């Protein structure tokens, strides 16, 4: 996030790993639900139980005092759950019928648990949310919950070293991106021109912006078949693999230093990451370092498309206080409330109008995230995604470390995905 401490950064990393290793459900997935019931009028009342992960769960009670003040008859009880315990806790609660009223859901968990969520009522206005974040709440044609906060991936690069190498503008295309990585190594003294995942958990996810930018789709339009083995995907992975083949990226899973350290010392001065790295890099680099690097949208082939992440807020079907729960989600969706949450935590607003605020619009780095969020995509919201992603990570490792042909790797992945199925 924007102003993270080490604890929050660790939570983000754990969350990312969880989202990619979670087990899918064995059932056939949620069926299309009937139109959601309307939300009763009047102020919220009664008790709302809310589960939230990591530092969000710790910070929410202070924010929610304002909601309770606006609705004197309501009380929100927040339970903070460590990210590494969240998956099993939700699975146990769903199995035992002991779910909270409201919960924070990682965007790639939606397909796993959607049949336990209450469908979003029509009173919830989604028109101002970033389109990609709204898509993350949709499962098999039904919308569940609301986008709470968002993040996306952009390119971070050492602009001071780029200038030393003779490049004065941000990379815009695939060719620009490759040229910058090459120049940083050959002319600016970097050991590697760019940091790219080399087969660890989540590597496939990090290749998706390249695939999407080249027009690849992971599933057919009705979500009934995986379409992983396509010319567009193969071309993107061939491009990705070229950085390792040309020694512009390290094949080692770990170089012994953190991403921040390699970026700051100039040994690997370009990477793709989310908004939390602004704060981490500023801290690692010390005073004045923020002027030595810039961020840019994902490099474009056909489009400049990135991954959209963050968290959604959902209401469970078994909620004992449904109407008040949805009123809470309406309140959390207000642009002015999201800006207060951003000021408190650094979590970026999912409401586009909030980005007009000077705290975001006038920031040269954060405004790029706002620009990128207009063109994003996310993995399919199906219960088997996490299993397919794990199989894909193995293929990325084979491509990077063993030199496996991307087209052959995609054939293997397609076979594995067909075997795993779509959960339908």
UniProtKB/TrEMBL annotation:
The keyword Coiled coil does not apply. SUPFAM superfamilies: Periplasmic binding protein-like II. Pfam families: SBP_bac_1. It comes from the Bacteria. Gene3D superfamilies: Periplasmic binding protein-like II (3.40.190.10). Residues 1-28 form the signal peptide. PROSITE patterns: PROKAR_LIPOPROTEIN. InterPro entries: SBP. Keywords: Signal, Transport. The keyword Chaperone does not apply. Belongs to the bacterial solute-binding protein 1 family. PANTHER family: MALTOSE-BINDING PERIPLASMIC PROTEIN, MALTOSE_MALTODEXTRIN-BINDING PERIPLASMIC PROTEIN. This is Sugar ABC transporter substrate-binding protein. It comes from Pseudarthrobacter humi.
């Amino acid at each position: 996030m924007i102003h993270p401490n080490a604890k929050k950064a660790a939570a983000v990393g754990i969350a990312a790993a969880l989202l990619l290793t979670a087990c899918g459900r064995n059932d056939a997935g949620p069926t299309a639900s009937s139109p959601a019931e309307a939300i009763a009028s009047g102020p919220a009342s009664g008790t709302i139980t809310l589960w939230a992960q990591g530092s969000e769960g710790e910070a929410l009670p202070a924010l929610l005092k304002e909601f309770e003040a606006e609705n004197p008859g309501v009380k929100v009880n927040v339970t903070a759950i460590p990210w590494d315990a969240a998956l099993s806790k939700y699975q146990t609660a769903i199995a035992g019928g002991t779910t909270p009223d409201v919960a924070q859901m990682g965007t790639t968990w939606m397909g796993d648990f959607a049949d336990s969520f209450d469908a979003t009522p029509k009173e919830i206005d989604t028109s101002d949310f970033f389109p990609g974040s709204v898509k993350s709440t949709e499962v098999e044609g039904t919308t569940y919950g609301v986008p709470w906060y968002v993040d996306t991936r952009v390119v971070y690069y050492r602009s001071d070293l780029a200038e030393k190498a003779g490049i004065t503008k941000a990379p815009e295309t695939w060719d620009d991106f490759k040229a910058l990585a090459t120049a940083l190594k050959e002319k600016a003294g970097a050991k590697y021109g760019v940091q790219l995942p080399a087969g660890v958990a989540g590597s496939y996810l990090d290749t998706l912006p390249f695939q999407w930018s080249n027009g690849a789709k992971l599933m057919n339009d009705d979500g009934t078949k995986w379409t992983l083995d396509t010319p567009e995907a193969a071309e993107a992975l061939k491009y990705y693999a070229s950085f390792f083949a040309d020694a512009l990226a390290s094949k080692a899973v770990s170089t012994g230093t953190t991403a921040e350290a390699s970026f700051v010392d100039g040994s690997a001065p370009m990477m793709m990451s989310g908004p939390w790295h602004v704060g981490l890099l500023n801290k690692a680099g010390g005073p004045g370092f923020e002027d030595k690097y810039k961020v840019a949208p994902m490099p474009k082939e056909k489009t400049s498309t990135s991954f959209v992440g963050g968290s959604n807020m959902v209401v469970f079907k078994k909620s004992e206080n449904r109407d008040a729960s949805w009123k809470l989600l309406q309140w959390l969706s207000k642009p002015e409330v999201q800006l207060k949450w951003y000021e408190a935590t650094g979590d970026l607003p999912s409401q586009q109008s909030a980005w007009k605020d000077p705290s975001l619009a006038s920031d040269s780095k954060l405004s790029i995230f706002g620009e990128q969020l207009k063109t994003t995509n996310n993995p399919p919201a199906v219960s088997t995604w996490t299993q397919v992603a794990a199989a894909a990570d193995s293929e990325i490792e084979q491509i990077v470390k063993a030199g496996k042909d991307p087209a052959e790797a995609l054939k293997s992945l397609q076979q594995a995905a067909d075997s795993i199925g779509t959960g339908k």
